[in-house]
Write a structure and sequence with these properties.
Largest sheet: 8 strands, parallel, barrel
Bound molecules: phosphoenolpyruvate, manganese (II) ion
Strand order of the largest sheet: 3-4-5-6-7-8-9-10
Helix content: 40-55%
Low-confidence stretches: none
Radius of gyration: 26 Å
Length: 365
């Protein structure tokens, strides 16, 4: 056995390494295809049964010299790496993700800037009830320097007997009053057929109950209008971003809105998932805002929640405002009156200034 023999054997090993790498890559490509199907179908990525089946099929074919335990160990490592590949593939390819686009998405609609350093305030009644009602709220927004007027025309109500909204007339009122006060309008669309009715609305909202209505998302995206997408009642952050991905084919102007998720807690209507704010802003380049009204379902904690949202890096907040909340036709308990709104807007402005000072300080090291 000479040194030349060793060299020749090493060359064969190098060739085998190359073949093994080629096979690993091919295996990885197949794993990714499976991952894409599983994501689409909402299936769990990890399948322990499948892994043990693969090992059971392999071990009887082990002719040595490696013993079964070693073969098992090596393949388990491959399985682990494959699972990692599956779990990270969306984050890598999603157009809404930072991996696709590093810089923050910042856009203006009328005078409102989403994704910029100043937190944007989206405010208005839960439901559009009358022109007079919307006008009073719009005047309070203009006075406080808020730029975006919300108001539901078609309402997703839990009870079929509850007020369902004014429909197309609600859109007309909201758009007209917003224009009159130099504000930007935002209102929910609940079905594809209603999108043309919302032509006069500046920003289309997709509500929590429709976050997973993929045909609606596609159609709303195709409208080309800016979209305010709310997180589903029981949606994970990953599912939320995947929903936004449906929109991005048609429009890049998307605002993600955390609005509380369902938990066992009953002192609030939902639980504001504050961790979603830094997580979403880390994972995605899109602006993130927080709807404190639907998160809390009550008015006495809205200011601290809004402060927390801004301190966590939210690009804005949404709050429901009504001239006489006790007489509102929907969501009475979570709408603030006009005087409380002035205070709320001031608190958000201050929280924004504090956040900017803090960020400037921490970026200076
Ligand atoms: C709304 O903002 O009017 C609304 C119905 O909110 P959500 O979809 O978050 O429940
Ligand atoms: Mn509401």
């Amino acid at each position: 056995m000479s040194f030349d023999d060793i060299l020749a054997l090493r060359q064969r090993i190098d060739a085998i390494n190359g073949q093994m790498l080629g096979l690993l890559s091919e295996r990885g490509d197949l794993v990714r295809r499976i991952g894409a199907i599983k994501t689409r179908e909402g299936l769990e990525k990890f399948d322990p049964l499948r892994e043990s089946e693969e090992l059971e099929a392999l071990l009887p074919r082990n002719r040595g010299p490696f013993d079964d335990a070693t073969v098992r160990y090596l393949f388990t490592e491959i399985f682990r790496a494959s699972l990692d590949l599956m779990e990270h593939q969306e984050a890598e390819v999603l157009k809404v993700s930072r991996r696709h686009k590093q810089a923050d998405t910042v856009f203006s609609v009328g005078g409102a800037v989403f994704g910029g350093p100043e937190p944007v305030v989206v405010a208005g009644p839960c439901s559009v009830e009358s022109e007079e009602q919307v006008r009073r709220v719009a005047a309070a927004l203009a006075e406080a320097g808020a730029k975006v007027l919300r108001g539901g025309a078609f309402k997703p109500r839990t009870s079929p007997y509850a007020f369902q909204g004014l429909g197309a007339k609600g859109y007309e009122i909201l758009a007209r009053v917003a224009r009159e006060f130099g504000l930007v309008s935002v209102s929910e669309v609940m079905e594809v057929a209603a999108i043309p009715m919302a032509e006069s609305i500046d920003i289309l909202q997709v509500g929590a109950r429709n976050m997973s209505n993929f045909k609606l998302l596609e159609a709303v995206g195709k409208s080309g209008k800016p979209v305010l997408l709310k997180r589903g009642l029981a949606a994970t952050c990953e599912e939320f971003l995947l929903a936004a991905e449906y929109l991005i084919a048609g429009t890049g102007r998307i605002v993600l809105c955390e609005r509380g998720i369902r938990t066992f807690e009953r002192w609030t209507r939902n639980t504001l998932d504050i961790s979603a704010v830094p997580l979403l802003t880390m994972q995605s380049h899109l602006p993130v805002i927080v709807d404190v009204s639907h998160a809390a379902g009550r008015t006495d904690i809205l200011v601290p929640l809004a402060r927390a949202a801004v301190a966590a890096g939210a690009h804005g907040v949404m709050v429901e405002v009504h001239p006489a909340p006790a007489f509102a036709l929907s969501d009475q308990t979570q709408q603030i009156d006009l005087a409380a709104f002035a205070e709320f807007a001031k608190a958000v402005k201050e929280a924004g200034a504090a956040y900017r000072t803090h960020s400037a300080r921490s970026s200076q090291g």
